[in-house]
Amino acid sequence: MCDTLTAAKPDPAPPLSPRRKRLRIDEIDSQWHCAIIGTCLPLAELKSLAVKMGITLASGPSGYNLHASMVQMASHHRAVAKALTKRLDRRHLVAVNRFSKVGTDAELAGLWSEALERGDVAGAGWAVMSHPAASEDTRRLIFRDIHMLSHQMGATARAELHRLDRLEREKIELEERIERLQANFLLEIGRRDAENQDLRRLLASAETEARKFAHAAEAAAETRDLQTAVEELRSQLAEEAARHRETERKRRTATETLDQTNQRLDRLTEENAHLADEVRLYESRLAESLAPQDGVGRCGWDCAKLDLCGRCILFVGGRHQQMTHVRRLVEDCNGVFSHHDGGVEESMSRLHGLFGQADAVLFPVDCVSHSAQNAVKQLCRQWQKPFVPVRRSGLAAYLAALETVVVDGPAEGG
């Protein structure tokens, strides 16, 4: 969700009937494509679609490159747009059918709020974005909600990591406990089996004796005693069998508990892999640790070994709260800092004027719009200026990019 919102557009004329044909993704404003594809289709679906359609990426098969390419082709490649729409409809069929029953923008906004509370973001997001009655204000609302939700998910990542570590320790303890229970269970079973065999032999012997003396009237009293003993032995055997069944039930319960714990651990491990990607978005918190009590912090790295020799470094995009630290970083390295926000608030025409004084251009690919990236690359080629795409918007990544400017006199990125 790194695309920058364009200026607000007027709402469409009166609400459309829900019976009208729903929109394909290429019929939806391209400013929403990044949020739709990034939220409503997993990366595995995009990879599968790319393989099926024979799409190869010159910039490499990374997840970000695949996402960016699909966002670009969704607006200009009709076959890709139709395939994306088909996969989105199939994956979120239930939500699409539910939202298709309403016909006004207000009803769509209400259903979206309910779905957001339930956590059904992906299906409801696509259902509203592709609904013919949805206004641009409603689509903008969905974009903002999804954007904020991604931030909130990252805030829980560390807690999930701690919980995962605790569950792993509990799993080890449960496994050890089950091993002890199984060992004790086997010993108990062996002892019970031996007792049962002794009881069966005694029962067989008692029954034999009872049959031998049953016909003798003089042995009637003894026979009754033997019969009583047989009943007692049978009762003991029944009790032993009941204890055996209870022990077996406890073993099955312990095994089921371990299986459930393993499944939960696997699920949390998968969730943690997704959340780990989001945690990197919060690298900006590093800047807070660099700020002293009485003002802007100084650079924490050993900048003395970097000398930009007075070069003017133009930063395009990035997070606004980081720019004070980036300025300090450049100036401490004997450079001149210049910045353009990539079209968030500043006009893109101002970017042309900044290129005249810039010696190198840096931009974080995760915090600048696709259109701004394309504009920077085109201007760099026109002005024959070197540029360095920075993979992440963090001070450590910016410092590494400045090192390439100092050491290599940065080569043109692509």
In words, what does this structure look like?
The longest helix is centred in the middle third of the chain and has 60 residues, at 220-279. The radius of gyration is 35 Å and the shape is elongated. A 4-stranded parallel sheet has the order 2-1-3-4, sandwiched between helices. The model is unreliable at 1-19, 274-304 and 410-414 (pLDDT under 50). It is mostly helical and 414 residues long. The protein has 3 domains: 25-152, no CATH class; 158-282; 303-408, Aspartate Aminotransferase, domain 2 (3-Layer(aba) Sandwich), CATH 3.40.640.10. Helix 1 (33-40) packs across helix 3 (63-76), helix 5 (93-99) crosses helix 7 and helix 6 (105-118) packs antiparallel against helix 7. The chain is built from 15 helices and 4 strands. The protein has helices spanning 33-40, 43-52, 63-76, 78-91, 93-99, 105-118, 121-129, 136-155, 157-214, 220-279, 286-289, 323-332, 349-355, 370-383, 395-408, and strands spanning 312-316, 336-340, 360-364, 387-390. Helix 12 links the parallel strand 1 (312-316) and strand 2 (336-340). The relative contact order is 0.08. This is DUF2325 domain-containing protein. Residues 157-184 form a coiled coil. InterPro entries: UCP020408 (IPR016772).
Q: Proportion of β residues?
A: under 5%
> How can the largest sheet be summarized?
4 strands, parallel
Principal-axes geometry comes out as elongated
What strand order characterises the main sheet? 2-1-3-4
* Individual helix count: 15
Question: How is the secondary structure organized here?
Answer:
Layout: H1 33-40, H2 43-52, H3 63-76, H4 78-91, H5 93-99, H6 105-118, H7 121-129, H8 136-155, H9 157-214, H10 220-279, H11 286-289, E1 312-316, H12 323-332, E2 336-340, H13 349-355, E3 360-364, H14 370-383, E4 387-390, H15 395-408
Parallel strand pairs: 1-2, 1-3, 3-4
